[in-house]
């Protein structure tokens, strides 16, 4: 603390996902007795340019250490290089798996969105899905878009068809609008028999849409991220799988590594993968139990 | 002398550093027409806005029916039987004649929860009242006020005030936009209202109109009461000079007569 | 009859709605857009937006904006979630608490606008930040989450999430709110005051309309409607989420204006708002039945919106010039 | 007879199904004051809006300086030397006196890119022109028009039109909100403008004002030209009856005289 | 002197700015908020918003809205990205193409608003959808992405992304736009027309102001400014993104109104807009220097906004009542 704070530039807290990341930061900070500050946008409409700017400001405060989610590499990578060149230790979390080695960071804790989507595509292709729908509720967000790209790539490799669907920017948090959008697509493309959503809220919408077109059981629905409802749906057999990035770990381990690096100079060699952990009928019970007992650790409760 | 209906005692009204009214005292009596005269910018409109609860006086007392009163809003004044035609606070262009006419005192029909505004009645009464003043073109209470001529709107406002001004009627230059026929009708209606016991405050720049109906006269010059007299106490010439802010009008008058 | 209808504020919205609906009916053959289920779909979508659009429209007619509806929807759903899930309280008291919170937010907006005379655009924007900030802060404090499950009783589920076929009960709520809004705006005395307040504030005040009371009441109504939508969404999806409803902040004024309400106040009708909402529901739902490439989705949305509003305008002019 | 400055031939103006003007023909001559008379709603304001390019006629021809002309906008009319005081199209309340006065014809100072509006000059001229009419309270060209009294605003509009109305001056009820002094001044200034060769169209409901300055008179009744005559061709009584839309005013007049 | 200043539209914004700045200076001791770097930080933040806020403010003074700035910023950055990265074209022609696109969008908005007489709120909203939809669709068609890298020459990097210490060249651009805006609004004849058009459209038209020309010009200026911001952001962050600038859509009107411009038109000043933008920059940047718990950050933001606007209002009233 003698040399300034540890600054964390991470995702917006209005997303349940990052609420779990922050829970990890908070818990670890308490355990390791470190002071840190969480910096995030409050308005998600300008993230692509807001994040580089937030990072730039954080760097200008000469922090003891920077823990960064590299969501928008084009703008953020040059800044991270600047920071590491200036001697600020940087640890990347959540996004930036392919970049951390090149920009001088000491490590990476998180997952690769492309890989996560790819895995989802593999699962669905294996399960016999012939036409998969990737539903992106936040078009224009490159990180989230990567998941669809991975999904599409895996399906293509398996020789399957895919449909990519986005919605209007105003509807990203309206489950009803997402339901009707997916329902429309299912009606227009009756051959669709698999859906991959990028968040737990649209996952519930997808289930409702499948139900409304009367094809429950015929269409395999899987999602990225999880929520209590998603877990219950897995338990009921409506949802095939949810892919957990284990956001809590991203926050917790970042602080842990930072603490150990600052005090002992220790850090993992190679990146730490926190996801994707596939949750399906085989492991959903325990996850639900943890979620009930420790709200916020596994994501939305 | 009967108890005055309304009385101002030493009333000031300032807008920032503009002193629109200074130490104004005056009395409005029931069954009398008080003519408020004065040059442009003398403070007449400001004065009636104080009387009608639209502005709060900066200092001084307003007495209504013998008791010191503070009207928190025009609504309160209106509910106590004071109706006003403002000079610049017009009507609502996008609303119909009937709805404008009864604004703030709408007639209702039916019972809760089906109590509604009685548009049919409102439209009928509004058109009827306006036609009393000799307007013939306005025949539907559904017409939007925004499509009426300047004079037609003015008649609407006057008709409305006369209909509701049970105790006191305040008219700020009501006849200025009116044709000769309509203006004459307004004066006639004022006399009827006076007979019914209403106290009337009448602002005009038309000396002829003022002299023909006024019982008492109050002249404002630069926000102060410069003169206050009864009907017949002053000559037409004197009144004209006072209306011109105390300046001598004879020269200008001569000028006009030359070509008349 | 027809002539009189043509002059009403909703005539344009009606024409635009019919044209758009026919367009989608023809552009999506065999996909079930015009079927009972397809209809239920766009009605469900329109209903939630419609419930908050009506008071927002009335507020706009009275000359004010409310940008805080988004956060109120989210806050209301989180009240339900935290109460029923974290504290295990029964759902009905929480429903009333959520409604009370909505009314309180509306009251705060109304008082702030009326007392400070600041533009409501700014006041309610600040409220929006404050409410969403408080919701998130409190949720994280209590439960470490910004989204949480809702445990609803059967009665609550019926009232807020019953479904007949695919049609949600929210459609009935929408009709109810629309009916109340219609009675108030077009039939009641209070409605006359709403028009007058927005049409000419000074004149309305001068005529004895309690303009402050009108505005405050409408802000409260808006807050209540937003809270109701939060409850409907929360119970329907079994979860509260602080970001629910953010899209409504601008969709509501949009459908209100499409429905013929003047942005500057003083003019509009509830029927128009309902039609504007329905139009929006048809477009944003129907567009997916076409199977068009959704990369271009916003382009289509924009073009359809423009076409609808142009049709709207064209009909209105036609109506005015033929009288 | 000299060539008329402006001429209307068989002009109609309809708003939807409202026929505001029907087959109107009239001539405005340079150096003459044409008084446009008529009841409320007769179509006077609509007529001058056609003359000033504010409205396009529904049918018929408008001749200006001998040639058929279509003014695409009020700007075009203004640039050709026609200045108008509208009855209801007021001033801009949130702008200063000086800026309102010169709106649309702003004086410039300096050179590009540092060419600016010459506010000092604008303010000076505006205040000077308004004081010509006897206003004393308006002393700063920076005052916002919204804080002025009704008559003060009217004087601003008139002063402006007189200052810019090189060839033709159109005044719609200019004196209606004015005090006796200011009204007399306006009439005086109109006579000066007439001497300078301007053609003037003057609308008023005040028979005295009309008779004192008018050279020719056109009377509209229900949107049609009901009479058109020269100074001295008709008696005061006849004129009054025409102004009242053709109705007999003697009864009402008597009524007024009774108490006068 | 002081009295005259107090009566100006920006007096309130100035007071609010000073108070807010002092507040943060005192609340964040030793964190470098008031240092050169900290100052550069909030200025950078304010600059890009400020560049588009000024024409938006002028437009608002003339009585119109522009909601399409968001998509224009994104489109302009994608033009740069697709041109330089996908097609390998040199950057300068792309810069002019982007500016031309911005001007064209503005022209389209202006013509549509003026010719159809539809509310600009709806027209520009439709444009916003159309432009963002077209940008996303074309980007995905050409490059299968909605964001892409930008390859800029050194000269372009200097003009649009030079940095002195932590201060970006965008601050200079902001000052330039502000200066031009000030000259136009307060000094030029055109500025008088802007006020008149927004203050009373009929009166302005009657007085001979070419109101349609005024509006169209301002729409074009807004489109140009938005395109410039897209270029600045794109070159600075080395990437184009279709969603760049979406936040400006409402931040711009917000800072404009905070700066004392009337939402209904006819009143305001460029100095006020600049101060409103600076205020916004100080709040959104300074709040992170305080080290307050991020969970509550939006709550603080809302409260500060409310406090700033209240201070603003209070000063304005004080000024009016003392004259
Ligand atoms: N709201 C206000 N703010 C500042 N000054 C005002 C305000 N209202 C009126 N004034 C000023 O007060 C003075 C009196 O105005 P008022 O409208 O009462 O005059 P008036 O006698 O009605 O004139 P007129 O015959 O022209 O209507 C004027 O100088 C005017 O500029
Ligand atoms: N924009 C409009 N739309 C519809 N009707 C209109 C419009 N403007 C005027 N009218 C109608 O045209 C008729 C003539 O109006 P105008 O304003 O010309 O009368 P005026 O002679 O000036 O009357 P006043 O002496 O009362 O000012 C009126 O009946 C009015 O209702
Ligand atoms: Mg007055
Ligand atoms: Mg007229």
From TrEMBL, chains B, D:
Pfam families: ABC_tran. PROSITE patterns: ABC_TRANSPORTER_1, ABC_TRANSPORTER_2. Residues 6-247 form the ABC transporter domain. The keyword Nucleotide-binding applies. Signal peptide: none annotated. Transmembrane segments: none annotated. One of its GO terms (molecular function) is ATP binding. InterPro entries: AAA+_ATPase, ABC_carbohydrate_import_ATPase, ABC_transporter-like_ATP-bd, ABC_transporter-like_CS, P-loop_NTPase. Keywords: ATP-binding, Nucleotide-binding. Belongs to the ABC transporter superfamily. This is ATP-binding cassette domain-containing protein.
UniProtKB/TrEMBL annotation, chains C, E:
CDD domains: TM_PBP1_transp_AraH_like. The chain crosses the membrane at residues 12-34, 40-60, 67-85, 91-114, 121-143, 163-185, 216-236, 242-263, 270-290, 296-315. It is found in: Cell membrane. Keywords: Cell inner membrane, Cell membrane, Membrane, Sugar transport, Transmembrane, Transmembrane helix, Transport. Pfam families: BPD_transp_2. InterPro entries: ABC_transp_permease. The keyword Transmembrane helix applies. It is a multi-pass membrane protein. Part of the binding-protein-dependent transport system for D-xylose. Probably responsible for the translocation of the substrate across the membrane. This is Xylose transport system permease protein XylH. It comes from Roseibium porphyridii.
